[in-house]
Amino acid sequence: MDDLNPLFARLARSSFRSRFRLGAKESQYCLDKGAEVIQRHAADFVASRLAPAEPVNDGKQTPMRGHPVFIAQHATATCCRGCLEKWHHISRHQALSEEQQKYIVQVIFHWLVCQMNPPR
Question: Which parts of the chain register pLDDT below 70?
Answer without folding.
Answer: 1-2
